[in-house]
Design brief:
There is one protein chain. Helix content is 27%, strand content 27%. It is of the alpha/beta class. It has an eight-stranded mixed β-sheet with strand order 5-4-1-6-9-10-12-13, sandwiched between helices. A two-stranded antiparallel sheet has the order 2-3.
Length: 215
C-alpha cells in the first residue's frame, strides 16, 4: 500500500493569547483529497491546520490525522513524516509570515496604531523539495490573484514539484469557503490540464487520477 502525506487548512500565527494572523482556508480541498486517496487505497497521513470540518465517518479510523496550529508545527510534522512516504500533496494555505514576538498576555489598546514585526515562516514546499528522492512525488498548490500562470510555473520549478494545482481567486466559485473549485494542473514537463468548475470532490478525483497516471 502506497503512503501519501496531505496537508490541509490554514495556519494560525499567534499575536497574543487571543489574536492571530490567519487566512480564510476551510480545509475542504485537502480533506476531499485525503478521502479520495483513502478510497483509492493509499495509506493517508493528513496534517490539518485549525479547521471546523471533520473527515467523513467512514474514513476517520483509516486516515491518520495530525492537528496543528502554526506554520512551524506543520513544518515539523511534514518534515518528520515525508521521508517515509511515497509522496505528498501540499494543499494547506500556510502563512508566509509569523510575528517575531508573541505577547504572553492580551495586548491592550493603547494609542492609535500598533506595529507588529513579522518574520518569514519556513517554506514547507521548498524544504520538502530539497529532500525529495527520485522514488517520491511532490504536488503543491498555488492560489494566485495576479500573473497566475507565471507565478505557478515559477513555484513549480523553484520548489522541485512534480505538479502544481493552480487556482485563482478571480474565478467565480473557486478559492476559500466554497464547495467548488476551478483549477489548472501544471506538470513539470510543461503539460497543462485546465479543468472546468467542479465540486472539490471531483477536483480531488482529477488530481489523484493525474498522480496515478503520471507520477
Amino acid at each position: 500500500m502506497k503512503k501519501i502525506l496531505i496537508t490541509a487548512g490554514p495556519t494560525y500565527e499567534r499575536i497574543d493569547p487571543v489574536r492571530f494572523i490567519g487566512n480564510y482556508s476551510t480545509g475542504k480541498m485537502g480533506f476531499a483529497l485525503a478521502e479520495v486517496c483513502a478510497e483509492a487505497g493509499y495509506d493517508v497521513t493528513l496534517v490539518a491546520g485549525p479547521v471546523q470540518i471533520q473527515l467523513a465517518e467512514e474514513w476517520r479510523d483509516k486516515i491518520h490525522r495530525i492537528d496543528v496550529e502554526s506554520a512551524g508545527q506543520m513544518y515539523e510534522q511534514v518534515m518528520k513524516y515525508y521521508p517515509e512516504m511515497d509522496g505528498a500533496i501540499l494543499c494547506a494555505a500556510v502563512a508566509d509570515f509569523t510575528p517575531i514576538v508573541v505577547a504572553d498576555q492580551k495586548i491592550k489598546r493603547e494609542g492609535d496604531n500598533m506595529i507588529i514585526e513579522l518574520k518569514p515562516t519556513q517554506d514547507i514546499a521548498a524544504s520538502v523539495g530539497k529532500i525529495k528522492r527520485d522514488d517520491q512525488f511532490l504536488v503543491g498548490f498555488a492560489l494566485e490573484t495576479n500573473n497566475e500562470l507565471t507565478n505557478a510555473e515559477r513555484k513549480l520549478q523553484s520548489k522541485n514539484l512534480d505538479m502544481i494545482v493552480l487556482n485563482s481567486l478571480r474565478d467565480n466559485g473557486a478559492g476559500f469557503g466554497v464547495d467548488t473549485n476551478k483549477v489548472t494542473l501544471i506538470h513539470a514537463d510543461g503539460t497543462k490540464n485546465n479543468l472546468p468548475l467542479l465540486s472539490k470532490q471531483e477536483v480531488a478525483d482529477a488530481i489523484i487520477d493525474a498522480i496515478i497516471e503520471r507520477l
